[in-house]
Design goal:
The complex is a heterodimer of chains A (447) and B (173). Chain A is α+β, with helices and mostly antiparallel strands and 447 residues long. Helix content of chain A is 15%, strand content 35%. Chain A has six helices and 28 strands. Chain A has a 15-stranded mixed β-sheet that branches. A ten-stranded mixed β-sheet of chain A has the order 17-16-19-22-28-24-26-25-21-20. In chain A, strand 8 and strand 9 form a beta hairpin. Chain B is 74% helix and 0% strand. The radius of gyration of chain B is 18 Å and the shape is globular. Chain B starts with a helix and ends with a helix. Classes of the chains: A alpha+beta (447), B mainly alpha (173). At the A-B interface, helix 1, helix 2, helix 3, helix 4 and helix 5 of A face helix 1, helix 2, helix 3, helix 5 and helix 6 of B.
Chain lengths: 447, 173
């Protein structure tokens, strides 16, 4: 170690970790320019740092670059195919040219199984294939992986990830949906702005180019920590429960995300209002308390039997009996509302549709309909059911299909917006006596 | 290019990955986009496969390509932080080539890692296998981050010397 520069190890560590300041880089350049011994030490240290990163600290033939290239050619049954130069070259060519870049300096630690892909033509990425990944770049399409911890990750392009171990990934770009399962509690996702620690859940992380991280909880809970905090000792910035979503900006300030749009598949969610074909473009409310972090989920064409009614809880919309949901409602865009708003007497919600549409409100028929509903909407006379689903930990199953489960009748109200635009909704009706009313539902269908 | 030549090229390119990554990592002073530059270097080398003379040593040629890719990357990202000027970059590249002239560093490192005392090996694993930051390691061990940095520095020096000695010993006379 350089005795002339006792701070050199710390300076180098900051450079290696990518945390060096401009001043530290300038200091490094100055030292290396004037001191050949330090220059040799710098090269020696950086070279070893790279080699150790390359190997994950334990070099073995099976984790060599050759193995990583082979891994791209394993068969769907998970067996490494016999080495043929042409196949080997094809695998490398696929990695180099097709853009699915498993970097060859894979550490030994993280084996993942490919569950499903879209828009990836390479046969090396067939479902069932096992590959070892460190840094992973996905320029297009999507991949679903299963890690040895049981965690499932759906990655949407463009994405750049680093697999640290089976319980830890870093996302520098892209959208990742994590279904953590029972064994994966404690799973960690790092981004440039925050560190997300799962507490047993399904959640999404989106890191667009614009320097922020969006975190959306679909089920369970997560904790968010500041990027450089120590999880063992520091308190989290916040804890998010299902139905909540926040944006963490470059200054690590948090703000509520009000809308999450979804396509037909779970992974097709977006916090940026991406085109899903939905007629509903936004849902806004007057909740302003900083602790209110709930979002509205807009599911394009999502109204069908057993559609989840709220952003939290497992309650579902169903036909009240075997006849099922009214035909005019099937395939409508569905807004999953916030269940705790059922007691909010000050609630104001504004729904905006992009084109001519019918707006539907499903109101608990056991309560007196609120004045705003009577004045602005028409009762269709139809009733649908809200299945009051058993709690997740109860061991009881949610009813499947129309008429199944513990149903509360909801009246279907509608209002036509012939030119599209926005409409304001008010608080839910208030029940009397023993009845506990539920929050209303919202749907829309293009004319 | 014959299939045999192509096969030989791929083997050399594959074997050079750690040295190429090390070179880019060193020239970019640890910038996180070293992986991108490696990817681009691989693409360029792949495109140049047909003009590569198999009688020439592969690694110096590939390192030169990597150096040019670092320069090109720097040019593309010129608004970002610039760590080394061209002259210093050249000096560092020469030093890197000198230190990595002997192939087989990965295998030598395997041997050297096995010789590390258990505590040092554990620290290497925490840092490089599990990807823990120095600050996290220091907090968990109740030590100062500077002390952990200094220890890692010492371990890397030990490993570098061990790798050099191992390669020199195994070199044909």
């Amino acid at each position: 170690m350089s005795e002339a520069e006792p701070a050199f190890p710390r300076l180098l560590q900051a450079v290696m970790d990518g945390t060096a300041t401009t001043e530290q880089h300038q200091r490094l350049a100055e030292l290396l320019r004037t001191n050949a011994t330090l220059r040799a030490e710098y090269v020696q240290q950086m070279r070893l740092d790279a080699l150790l990163h390359f190997t994950g600290g334990a070099v073995a033939q099976k984790t060599s670059p050759e193995h990583a290239a082979h891994a791209a050619a394993v068969t769907p049954r998970g067996n490494v195919s016999r080495f043929f130069p042409i196949r080997f070259m094809a695998a490398i060519a696929a990695i180099l040219v097709l853009g699915v870049s498993v970097l060859w300096w894979s550490r030994r630690g993280v084996e993942v199984e490919v569950v499903r892909t879209t828009e990836i033509a390479s046969s090396a990425w067939r479902p069932g294939t096992k590959v070892r990944l460190n840094r992973f770049s996905l320029p297009r399409g999507s991949v679903e992986f299963q890690l040895s911890s049981g965690v499932r990750l759906e990655v949407m392009a463009p994405a750049e990830l680093q697999f640290v171990n089976a319980m830890h990934v870093r996302v520098s770009l892209g959208q990742v949906t994590a279904d953590v399962g029972d064994r994966g509690k404690g799973f960690v996702v790092d981004t440039a702005q925050t560190q997300i620690v799962d507490l047993g859940t399904k959640f999404g992380v989106a890191v667009p180019n614009s320097g922020h991280t969006d975190v959306v909880v679909f089920q369970g809970e997560v904790e968010l920590f500041k990027r450089k905090s120590k999880r063992q000792t520091d308190a989290p910035m916040t804890r998010l429960v299902e139905g909540e979503a926040v944006r963490v900006d470059a200054q690590q300030q948090m703000s509520r995300i009000m809308n999450v749009t979804s396509g037909p598949h779970d992974k097709d969610w977006s916090t940026l209002g991406s085109e899903t074909g939905a007629v509903i473009t936004s849902v806004h409310d007057n909740l302003r308390a900083p602790t209110e972090l709930y979002y509205y989920r807009i599911l394009a064409g999502g109204l069908r039997e057993d559609a989840q009614a709220f952003v939290a809880k497992r309650h579902e919309w169903n036909g009240l009996d075997a006849a099922g949901l009214p035909a005019e409602l099937l395939g409508a865009d569905l807004v999953q509302t916030i269940p705790s708003d059922r007691h909010n007497t000050q609630l104001e919600i504004v729904v905006t549709v992009a084109r001519p549409a019918v707006i539907y409100v499903f109101a608990d028929s056991r309560t007196k309909p609120p004045a705003w509903l009577v004045q602005n909407f028409t009762a269709t006379g139809a009733l649908i059911g809200l299945e009051n689903a058993p709690l997740l930990g109860s061991g009881k199953e949610v009813g499947r299909g129309p008429g199944e489960g513990n149903m509360a009748p909801f009246a279907v109200w509608k209002r036509t917006l012939p030119d599209g635009g926005a409409i304001e909704l008010g608080p839910p009706g208030v029940a009397t006596g023993e009845i506990r009313q539920w929050m209303y539902g919202i749907a829309a269908k293009a004319l | 290019m014959t299939p045999d030549q192509m096969s030989q090229f791929v083997e050399r390119l594959t074997a050079a990955q750690s040295a190429l990554y090390g070179s880019i990592h060193t020239l970019l002073a640890g910038a996180t986009d070293a992986a991108d530059v490696l990817q681009e270097t691989n693409r360029v080398l792949w495109r140049k496969a047909a003009v590569y003379d198999p009688a020439r040593p592969f690694l110096p040629w590939a390192l030169t390509v990597a150096r040019f890719e670092v320069l090109a990357h720097r040019k593309r990202r010129s608004r970002d932080r610039l760590v080394f000027d061209d002259a210093l970059l050249g000096q560092i590249a020469e030093e890197y080539e000198r230190q990595s002239a002997r192939g087989g560093a990965l295998q030598a490192l395997e041997h050297c890692l096995q010789k590390l005392p258990a505590a040092q090996r554990e620290l290497v694993d925490q840092r490089y296998l599990h990807g823990e930051s120095v600050n996290d390691i220091a907090a968990r061990q109740g030590r100062a981050a500077n002390a952990v940095s200094a220890l890692l520095y010492r371990i890397r020096s030990l490993l570098a010397n061990c790798v050099d000695h191992t390669l020199a010993r195994d070199e044909p006379a």
